[in-house]
Write a structure and sequence with these properties.
This protein is an alpha+beta fold. The protein is built from 16 helices and 26 strands. Bound molecules: zinc ion.
């Protein structure tokens, strides 16, 4: 397996991502930027998510504000509950996140909602001291991860959203009405969220500003098995770890054996699985892990994490939470607005429950890079085997040598194809070196214009993964590329 450091090296060299404000010494940790190649992959990943989840399931998508009112987060519970256990060295004042520190030192998983006196007890029991100066810690505190902002000249208190979904909850009654919704009613959103992490690290894996793609499925709690679409996915095979046993079962079996509680959850876990199958990650290294009472987020009653094995261990890519009516009832209570709707199918008045698929985009991008990275020692090359529809560029047009008659044809092909596809033109340097650069950023095809092109209007198409070359008519290129873009 390729190392985490190797992927970061590739990303810095090839412009996938790099630290923000990096020319300044006060650049804060936990903020990274996508360069041109990384940004293209991110946008294509989002497009695939739209295709395989939003459009497949007839979801609606919104784009909400990143800054929201204080009351939103009083209602959501984030101002009270959204915190990590923090320890401070009594001598050198080093600050650490207690749960991560205990996991690193003793291999003990500290649950998210552990009482802080329990953290102090563990620190004492294992005699854990400051890794910098060896002194003991002050009493554990809870650190709230919300980013506060001041609005307007009066500095009115508001917050950057810590998850995109709060706008979806607040907007739900309006959207349900104007879209003439029926339950289950999924609302999707892609955007940035902000968490003031105590110890951000590992580039895209724990950021303070990050991308989420969230789907909130509003449902009637009495109709969780009335899901006709379930038939579509009943044979999809999922790996589920319920904390005691790991089962590899079809969605139907998981339901019969009560590993998954209802058809609604089984359906959405399955279409999520089928989406990730198309990203190029190794699905044999994935699992849905059912979270214990103590591990779940404060708003969840049932929770599965979709996890992927990577060089840094199991990585949570999607949190799948059954949030019950927690959010809608809280917003209703604090705002005094009615959040109930009429379910047009059953004709009952209902405060919908919510099941969510909260997907981390940045972690998914990192995972795709790592799982697609291949070292081809025989040919002394690095190949990023990205799916054509996720590659930053689909193909490059290369005149074999720097001759005006070849360059003219190559440029014409380039200008024609770039109207429909992400193309690249590279007219100089040895052809071998040009291929290597393209392989490292995952460009699946290279089109070479040579002396035969002048005679018979054919070009060479070279496949990144196999290095196989074929001749093809210039006029056939467009339909060739269209076919490769189908997931
Ligand atoms: Zn210290």
């Amino acid at each position: 397996m390729v190392s985490y450091d190797r992927i970061v090296k590739l990303s810095l060299e090839r412009g996938f991502y790099f630290p923000s404000s990096e020319i300044y010494s006060d650049s804060p940790a936990g903020f990274w930027e996508y360069g041109p190649n990384g940004n293209n992959i991110k946008n294509k990943f989002i497009e695939l998510w739209r295709r395989e989840l939003v459009r497949r399931d007839d979801m609606v998508e919104i784009d909400g504000s990143q800054i929201m009112s204080k009351n939103v987060f009083i209602a959501s519970g984030h101002l009270d509950n959204f915190s990590d256990p923090l320890i401070l060295c009594s001598k050198c004042k080093s600050v650490l996140r207690a749960d991560k520190f205990i996991l690193e030192k003793e291999g003990i998983n500290v649950p998210e909602r552990i009482p802080i006196n329990e953290v102090d007890r563990i620190l004492n029991q294992y005699n854990l001291k400051c890794p910098k100066c060896g002194s003991s810690f002050q009493k554990t505190e809870r650190f709230n991860m919300m980013f506060k902002v001041g609005i307007g000249p009066n500095n009115d208190e508001a917050y950057l959203r810590p998850e995109t979904c709060q706008a979806i909850f607040v907007d739900f009654p309006r959207i349900f009405k104007i879209m003439r919704g029926k339950l289950p009613f999924p609302i999707a959103q892609v955007g940035k969220s902000f968490r003031n992490e105590i110890a951000p690290r590992q580039s895209l894996l724990r950021l303070r500003e990050f991308y989420q793609a969230e789907i909130e499925i509003f449902c009637n709690p009495n109709q969780l098995d009335a899901i006709p679409k379930f038939d579509e996915i009943q044979d999809t095979i999922l790996t589920i770890d319920d904390g005691t046993i790991i089962s590899k079962v079809t969605a139907k079996e998981a339901l019969n054996r009560k590993i998954i509680p209802n058809k609604l959850i089984a359906y959405y876990l399955s279409i999520l699985y089928e989406f990730y199958e198309k990203t190029g990650i190794d699905m044999n290294q994935t699992r849905f892990r059912k979270l214990s009472e103590q591990e779940k987020a404060f708003y969840a009653t049932i929770a599965f994490d979709f996890e992927l094995k990577t060089s840094v261990g199991w990585l949570e890519l999607v949190a799948c939470n059954y949030r019950s009516n927690y959010d809608l009832s809280q917003h209703s209570k604090i705002s005094k607005e009615k959040m109930e709707i009429m379910d047009p199918v059953t004709n009952e008045k209902v405060l919908p429950h919510v099941f969510e698929l909260s997907l981390g985009i940045d972690r998914s991008i990192y995972s795709i890079l790592e799982h697609c990275f291949a070292e081809d020692h025989e040919n002394n090359r690095v190949v990023l085997k990205l799916k054509p529809y996720l590659a930053p560029l689909l193909a490059a047009i290369l005149p074999l040598v720097k001759k005006p008659e070849l360059e003219e044809i190559a440029k014409n092909i380039y200008y024609d194809l770039k109207k429909d596809f992400d193309m690249y033109y590279d007219g100089s340097g040895s052809i071998g070196r040009r291929y290597r650069r393209l392989e490292e950023i995952g460009v699946p095809f290279a089109i070479t214009v040579d002396h035969d092109t002048v005679k018979d209007s054919t070009v060479t198409i070279r496949y990144r993964d196999t290095m196989e070359q074929k001749r093809i008519q210039i006029k056939e290129l467009k339909s060739f590329f269209e076919k490769t873009l189908k997931p």
